[in-house]
Amino acid sequence: MAFSQSAFDDLIEKINEKLKKVGELLDKMVDGVNSFAGHWYVPDAVAKPIIAAANKLVDFVNWILEKIGEFFKGVFAPVVLFLDSLDWQDKKIRGKASTASSTTAKGNLQAPKEWKGEGADAYTGAIWTQSSAAGQVSSAADSIATSLLVAAGAGLVFYGAIAAFLVQFVPAMIACSAAGVTGVGLVPAAIAAIGEGTAGWVLVTTASVALVTVLGDQAKTLAEMKGQAGDNSAFPNGHWPIGTA
What we know:
Transmembrane segments: 144-167, 174-193, 199-216
Strand content: under 5%
Order of helices and strands: HHHHHHHH
Distance between the termini: 39 Å
Keywords: Membrane, Transmembrane, Transmembrane helix
Number of helices: 8
Helix content: over 70%
Mean pLDDT: 82
């Protein structure tokens, strides 16, 4: 999936809003259950299962919030990867290498058109061979930029899965919050919320596995690029000539 920084920023803002909403609904449910169970006319036989269901839901939601908090430790990675891909792709790296490859090509050298003789021939022979070397740098930069962009896109998809999960989970929490005020229906509402949350979390887990797979593939690609970076076969005598560096 292509990466859009504005779309990613909107996505993270949406996740934060939903996380805040879930926290508020959970607090409201707990307050409602405590108030309900504290009434003198509510027998223990009625209060205990309601309190137990509320505690189970609190533990479950806190676990979810903790896991999402762990995932958020890497929330800046997709943006950093995206910006790094731009550096590799634009004029800073690939652009300069591509320009060097083009301008040093034998047919594009300008000096020999005005300069003749042994010096011109020596200059041409030393310079035009750099074209393939610069082309190798340009190609590697393009591959690295693509790999970084793919990884950033995978991050966008992953956090999108978290946002989708929260969007589906909030209505279940609204039902629990409303049921907590009167105690009526809280037990089935809590069971339904935990079921909804568990099913939704499976999708987040699947997205997490997919993310790890993509990142693993891109790490392999970058490792291969590192190996190619050490390949000086395209460079005359295995390095850039000092006189033309």
